[in-house]
Amino acid sequence: MRKLMILAVPAMLIAGPALAQNATGTVIINGTVGNKCSVLTGSGTSGTWGTTVNLGELSQSDGTLRTSASLSNDFNTVAAGAQNAHVVCTTANPTITVNADPLVNTAVPTVSGSGYTNTIHYQADVTVNKVSSSTVYPNDSNAAASGPTALGDRLAAAGPNVIIATSNWRTLGTDSQLVAGSYSGQIVVTITP
Amino acid sequence: MKKIAYIAMAAAAMAATPAMAQSASGSVAVTGWVGGKCTAQTPIAGAIDLGDLATSAGLINSTFSANVGGLSRSFSVICTSANVNITVSSDALNNSTDSTTGGGYTGRVHYTSTLTANKASGGTASAVYTTADVLPAATTTALGGRLQNATNNLTVTVSNGTTTNSGDVLKSGNYSSTILITVSPV
Amino acid sequence: MKKFLILAAPVLLAASPALAQTTGEATGTVTIDGSVLGRCMFTIPSKTISLGELSLTSTGKLDVSKVNGRNETLNGWCNNTAATMTVTTTELTTTTAAPTGFDNRVDYTATAVTGAISANDTSLTAGAGSASSVGLFSGDIVVTLSSASSPTNGLMVAGAYSGNVVVTLTPTVAPN
Q: Is pLDDT at B185 greater than 70 in this prediction?
């Protein structure tokens, strides 16, 4: 029997083009943080803070205004921290406005020079703690509102960082006798991002 | 009568004998191959808008609940290989003006990207990547099987926003990050 | 060796609009209130008018000139617009009893004047005189005696006589 030689023809290796490919891509993620200031309360946040400070009897036994030291001290004692706030702003340089209004007994008008007055003036002193420093922003009740003034820095992270006190309680000129009745005034502090 | 019988036998004998012509044969082997490849049927691209990143207290909103349009994007990818690797990585969300951290404030948000692929055999495989101040290496996961042959078989989802120091207030401005996704045949 | 071609997929850059908000202020309001009680006070609360010898040397009867026109000045203030002033006058008396023909008592009127406001009272009737409205004031209160008399215009019993004039300043209670 003749043997048949089978010629094994080698398979031709065709070097094809590089056909293995990755699929790649990118997804862009965007977000924002708005310019905002908030007050951190015990339970959340708010746009406002405040309290009412009742200083009680404003005159001393001779009918004139109590000493500035005693009124300033009572302001802090009665307010007991509720006049202060932990304010958070996302911006690098918030501004502050302080407006102190005198205490006035609006029910009893008085005449300048009569020796009597229905108006008590004082200075509001607002201390703002910032990341790198602390500054007092004052406003006298006998002057226009102060600001807006740039803080020049971010607010300190720890609170309270806006602290309100008072000083220089006084009556004006020679009208030192206080008329009887109820007196009311206010301090408004605004922090803008 | 003997003649007839003889012929018949001869015929039968002849039929039982195979053809005795010789032949030569050869064979040609034919081969080809299909390289493993993965191709995006829809571009792996897009944008996710997280909206306002901060809570009212200026802290990171970790759930990104202010997002516009959802936190996931899906793509359709075809892979020919028997096994597929998926890889994901990203940078952090950085504030375009000031991404530094200090003094109780930060301009950087970390987050997690989860890349999930549907398997042909059923189920999914995921690669998870979370950013950090020092970015880790990309995460690669092998499917251990073929990629499902269907649309939207690959999904990336962002989640879990954090800041380097919890309690840091976010600096105002625009934040941006890029997620890199790769699907490779094995 | 398999070669790999990387297909660069197009990158879509989604430009997000600047969403910086300019609202979002934090405002603090501290209301301060207090009160001043309605009050009157004498800064000079008492004076003494020493009348000296009350009787006429010639007749032993009351010398009204020793009383009439005598005055002293107190000083006080009221911070209340509804403050009032009253005078309560108590006659001069001595402890010794007065037999018939004698008197041991001198009646008189006391008038308190501050600025344009005056109030008076006579010791002839018990109790305070009518109140006069003084309002807000601070200053001297001049108390002047007048209309001195003795009950029977008799001889004055010897002894030490004393009486008083009380000027009362009353604020109306002011709300706290």
A: yes
Minimal Cα–Cα distance from C35 to chain B, Å?
38
Report chain C residues whose CB lies below 8 A from the CB of B69.
Answer: none
Looking at the partner chain, which of B30, B58, B182 has a beta carbon nearest the beta carbon of A24?
A: B182
Minimal C-alpha gap between B4 and chain A (Å): 35
Domain extent, residue B124, equals: 51-185
Q: Kindly state whether residue B5 falls inside one of the protein's structural domains.
A: no
Mark C121-134 as b/e (b = at least 16 C-beta within 10 Å): bbbeeeeebeebeb
Query: Which residues of chain C does A182 touch, with a Cβ-Cβ cutoff of 8 Å?
Result: 33-35, 175-176
Residue whose C-alpha is closest to residue B57's, from A192, A86, A163, C20: A86
Look at B49 and C13 and tell me if their CB atoms are within 8 Å.
Answer: no
Q: Which residues of A touch C43 (CB under 8 A)?
A: 62
pLDDT at C82 over 50: yes
Query: Pairing relation of β-strands C132-133 and C102-103?
Result: unpaired
Cα torsion at B95, B99, B101, B105 (round to 10°)?
-30
CB contact under 8 A, B47 and A132: no
Can you give the pTM of this predicted structure?
Answer: 0.75
**Number of domains chain B is built from:** 1
At B69, give phi and psi (nearest 5°).
95, 10
- Alpha-carbon gap: B121 to the closest alpha carbon of chain A (Å): 21
Is C72 inside a domain boundary?
Answer: yes
Question: How does pLDDT run across B146-176, given as a tens digit for each residue?
Answer: 999 999 999 999 999 999 999 999 999 999 9
Radius of gyration of chain C (CA): 39
| Percentage with pLDDT > 70 across chain A | 90
Q: Give the CATH number of the domain where residue B167 resides.
A: 2.60.120
Is residue C153 a part of any domain in this protein? yes
Q: Chain C: residue nearest B179 by CA? A: C11
Kindly indicate the confidence band of residue B30, based on its pLDDT and cuts at 50, 70 and 90: confident
pLDDT of B22 over the 70 cut: no
Q: Scanning every residue of chain C, which has its alpha carbon at the shortest distance from the alpha carbon of B40?
A: C9
Expressed as residue numbers, the domain containing C62 is 51-170
Which residue in chain B is spatially nearest to A159 when comparing CA positions?
B104
Q: What does the pLDDT read at residue C173?
A: 64
Whether the ipTM is more than 0.90: the answer is: no
